[in-house]
Amino acid sequence: MSGPTTRGVTGGGIPRAHSGAIYIEAGGAPTLLKEDVELMISWVDRIWALLEERDNFGPGDNRERARRMIAEARQHYEAKLAKAR
Question: I need a surface site. Which of 8, 17, 26, 84 has the fewest CB within 10 A?
Fold first, then answer.
């Protein structure tokens, strides 16, 4: 049994929320805070550690594909870290 319909939710669906990124520029340059970028790098590392711990990659080259995606995400944030203040 479900409760009353939530605004924007029909058919007994689960209410969901989403957010969009907010980008701030100062003097025409993006504002990156070192602490924020370091936090994202630590989250990427944590995700990989959890994936490794669970070792549930399935068949084929899924482990290697996941490792490459994580490495790409980490490189993305490392590049931002070089520009952060």
Answer: 17
Look up tokens 């939710």; give the residue: 9
Whether 58 maps to a domain, the answer reads yes
Residue 44 lies in a domain: yes
Supply the range of the domain harboring residue 64.
31-83
CA distance 78 to 84: 10
In this prediction the pTM is 0.66
What is the largest distance, in Å, between two alpha-carbon atoms of the chain?
54
